[in-house]
Batch of 4 targets.
Target 1
Amino acid sequence: MELDMKYPKLIITLLLFLTVTLSQRAMAQTFNPLISFSVESCTLDKALEKLFVDYELNIAFSKAELSKIRIESYSCSYKSVEEVLTDLLKGTDYGFKKIGKQYVIKKNQQLVNVPDATITQPADPRIEIVKPKTDSVVPKAGEVIHIYDTVQVIKTVMRYDTVVKVQHEVQTDTVYTVKYQGWQIPWPKFRNNGWFMTPSVALSSVSFKHEGGMPEPENGMVDVTPSFAYAIGLDGGYKHNRLTTGMNLSYRSVRYRFLLEQTTFDGDYYVNDTLDAYYVVHPTGDTTYQYILDSTYVPLTTTNFAYRDVNRLDYLSVSLFAAYDFVKMEHFRAFAKAGISFDFLVGQAGSLNATETPFHAPITRDQVEPTKISFYGGLGVAFKVADRIELVPEVHYRVTQGSLYRADFPFDMRMRMWDFRLGLTYYL
């Protein structure tokens, strides 16, 4: 009976021994399995990713670094993970270290020989440079804003110990504060001194002043009504700080409407006609003539003359001017301007009144003054629109000395006008 009890105990002990031995081998095979692996020619990061997909191996590596290393096609059967990793990393500057259940791929000189440990979180040993937008403005609603001209460097340092530690180092460059001055236009730097030229156009409002009144014919009237005047010109000169001097050459055309009305009367009287004549001789020897007369009434005849025309006087003008900027800013200026102009007649057209029917005749050159002098003054502004260009609107009042027609012609007409001028100044 005692012999029978020894055998079951021996059998139980043997079964326990086999169970423990097989469990350790199974666990060893679980943590260090033999694998079969193959991959085509690709970058090293793709090969390691395929290892993870095929066998779910935890491999930590820098994708940015390993994506630059290309390997040839590889194939093996029933090799351990360490052997496969050794084959894949052969010929590169990289090696691996197993930490717990994870394989860490790094350059050989950066591997740290530490005992196996459990890593608390995957580490990504990369250096990232973050560049925020330069001159970022926040917020605009406040009185004071902060402008950051900053380059932020974030460095991740890994240390392999029993627990992985991650340390962040932040470096901040210039930080300064300015006061918010409201909305402003970023005007470029302008050239506003030196030699310049200005093409321009002008429209004028004309008025006439008649010394001694208009010539009024008997039973008629003459009238002139200003129409308009225009000019095109070119300025040239020199500007220094606030003072501008220059010369202008322009063509100016003055137009006005000419109106004539004249009425003539003829008739309304009797015309005598002799029907017969006889004479009587007196004893004294004198002779008396006697006439038999008849009269005929001539009726009144009225003739009206009415004539309208548009007269034109054309001048070529040469003027000298000076201007002073009483307001001067980076992109805007306002100025006062004065000048003298010498006007030379270059053309005329239209009609003037005459003393005989039809009481009007074409204007002739000897009726118009060939040369006139004008004085003008006014205000203007200039807006910068480009590096060397200004847009210049101006308004002038111009007075022409003397009559437009000769003194021996009874048509005394003196001209005044408002000039509205627009120019474009270019600095050379």
Note: Helices lie at 2-31, 44-55, 63-66, 81-89.
Target 2
Amino acid sequence: MPPPAESSRLALSAGDGFTITLGVPAGAVELPAAELPRPDVSRLPGAVLLSVRGWNAPGSIVRAGCVGGPSSRYAPGIEEVLFEKATWMTLTRAGLQPERLGQTAAHDTDRTFQRTLEGTDAGAAVRLEHALAFDGPDRTVLFCSALCRGDASTCAAVTLDIAGTSAPPPRPSLVVKSALLAAEMPMVFFGAAAATFVAVVALILWRRPYPRP
């Protein structure tokens, strides 16, 4: 891969104690917000579109955006599902179907998750980055994506970075824990559910008044 072109970093979104920044290639011209398609996040419960931005650089395009949402449905491992859905949504909105798109980098900490995917589209380089962090005492999910298509050295400069310290991931709720148990150990889950049902029925029958002769 050719070395990345010169770039400047700007704040794409910010949380309590951290900022998600984006590398924008030198010479890129930002587009008016009205010219950028806005992704539909209405099917994601509680999700809010925080920002949508785009630039045109010589021979390349750059698109980026961030979404926030409640963490009540978060569970360890679900970030991979979020990355897959964000990849599909970002490419669909940009009208791209890159060839040989695959993950080339992953950087996870105990609080944040990042992925890089690369491929080609009609001979042009395609680079897609995702960053996931958690904000504030409610552990709100903050998710950003950045896409570049065009010159390989230009796209190599389009990177996301989490500067500062994110809040830790939330603990899974009781509902989420039950769903995880059912998925990972279905026999144990349903056995426990059946035992609970039997215990409740027995309690009801024990408290039920018996007819006297």
Note: Residues 174-183 have pLDDT under 50 and may be disordered.
Target 3
Amino acid sequence: MENKILFKIAVLLSATSFLFSCGNLDNPKERNKLVFEDSINSVNDSVNAMNELLLKTGRQFYIYAIDVDMNNVDRNENDFFLYVDDTSHSAQKVGIITDSLLYKSKLLEFIDTLARKRFVSLALYLNKNYLSSCDIENGNPIYMYKSDIYMADRQTDLFRYVVFANSEQEIDLNRYKILDKHRNLYLLADKEAKIWSSE
């Protein structure tokens, strides 16, 4: 009887250990810190410029994302596509972000004609610096940060966001917690997210 109890305890401990090790995915420390390819000043100023441009559109929802086309078997991993939300809140593929004529797409008509080249250029630059998409939340642009790192089923814990703010008072601390800050850029996670680093 005692052996059976010890065996059951050993099995439970083993299962718990297995689940814990599977749950804690490889999570590089850069996901919990603001780390960009370019200088923080340059990224800070580019986010501010993009915000000014996007807020002029008057949109109050998801704006754009840059990603590879997962449905194209012949895709080049270096070919990133720009997607924008249409009026029915459905993501539409505009084209390859590096296409020099992308700004002429009718899907970008929500942006002033003279600002479209600037929008495409800023989106490409921010994507290079790990800010791959932008939503409008309560009238403020919020960017996904390092969304290309594998997240498996722990997505809510590993989602990271970047916002441009003049102070913490502009951030909804009922929804988010602040992980890092440089100049006007704040790195956020969901308030209830479990934060860890594998390094």
Note: Confidence is low (pLDDT under 50) at residues 1-22.
Target 4
Amino acid sequence: MIELHRLQKDPVSDEIEERLQAMVVAHRIKHYAAAPTGSPDAPLPYIREGEKIISGREDTARYLDELERFMRVQHTYSADACYIDPETGEIC
């Protein structure tokens, strides 16, 4: 399960949350009024997926980009639709 650990009032956290919602990916959100003290985890905001923790702007952006690509493929193949290959004209 993907978990977003975020501060309540934080534009960066808002952006990450919006991207997860737009992907329609299952996730939980844990709000914090302030960063927990003495936490062994990464600074807020961060994403936890199982044992993996993703934090920092670059790593988070890369993770979300990869997740968006993965979800796009999943939605394509799980959709109740048929596609025509533009190159061959074959129908799924």
Note: The chain is about 40% helix and 20% strand.
